[in-house]
Amino acid sequence: MNFTKMQGLGNDFIVFAGDTELPANASDLALKLCDRHFGIGADGLVYLLPSQKADYMMRIINSDGTEAEQCGNAIRCAAKYIYDHGMVDPSRTELRIETIGAGPQQVQLTVDGGAVRAVRVDMGEPVLDGLSVPTTIAKERVVDQPIQVDGREFRFTAVSMGNPHCVIFVEDAAEIDLHVWGPKLENHPTFPRRVNVEFATVRGRGHADMRVWERGVGPTLACGTGACATLVASVLNGKTERAATISLPGGDLFIEWDERDNRVYMTGPAEIVFKGTL
């Protein structure tokens, strides 16, 4: 079984292509292969499968064996893999990749020397209705909402980018202990399907820092959907413009929330780390 290890801003994946459907043992494989001491090591598995609605379908299995609806860093890696491995005509610089949570997504490729150097993804419209994110809060928009965790109050904004996010603005995101607050917020009863947790610090109208606790994974160096959710939350809270750079531990993503079509666009890199045979 051949695999390719890829990363987008340090958010890393084991990519498999060639299967016609998701293997029945995908969850068990994720637990084994994503282990950084006894396996290959990754934040998740990515399967590239046939699609009736797009060029390919992407299925993502987190390192804990659960399936993610969508992942912004993974879809950039998937797009680079598809193009660089000749799975589409080399004259094409636009692809459609189907996801479980956000449906088919349009991807634009920046190609140089026959390889993809950057990927711009149409991440779709953000979901802001409280019950649809989902949260247990019946509001059209859950913005700057107080939440109590072990006697401490945070204020969060809820956004779904095909998967649920809880964005919390703090004075210094680097000072937050993700291992303490991440799992407690992820599993808080306010979030019936658990949640990805972003702590963000706004540096200016066009720049914010972000750290993330990913649902089913833990702390990661980057989260594409989390960066999109952070930009949307920043706009809703009047903190940034509708286009800004979101800096993550693994690097920068440029995020735009287009007022004309209400869609969020993410631009960033993806890289192949190594290839192997299992």
Descriptors for this entry?
alpha+beta, 4 helices, 278 residues
What does this structure look like?
The chain has an 18-stranded mixed sheet that branches. It is built from 4 helices and 18 strands. It is globular and about 50 Å long. 45% of the residues are buried. The longest helix has 13 residues, at 72-84. The chain has helices spanning 26-33, 72-84, 178-186, 224-236; strands spanning 2-8, 11-17, 44-49, 56-62, 67-68, 94-99, 103-112, 115-124, 145-149, 152-160, 164-169, 196-204, 207-214, 218-220, 243-248, 251-257, 264-268, 271-277. The model has no long low-confidence stretch (mean pLDDT 97). 15% of the residues lie in helices and 43% in strands.
Largest sheet: 18 strands, mixed
What is the helix/strand order? Answer: EEHEEEHEEEEEEHEEEHEEEE
Helix-and-strand structural type: alpha+beta
Strand content: 35-45%
> How confident is the prediction overall: mean pLDDT?
97
Q: How many runs of DSSP E, i.e. beta strands?
A: 18
- How far apart are the termini? 5 Å
Count of discrete alpha- or pi-helical segments spanning 4 or more residues? 4
| Helicity, as a percent range | 10-25%
Low-confidence stretches: none
Shape: globular
* Rg of Cα set: 18 Å
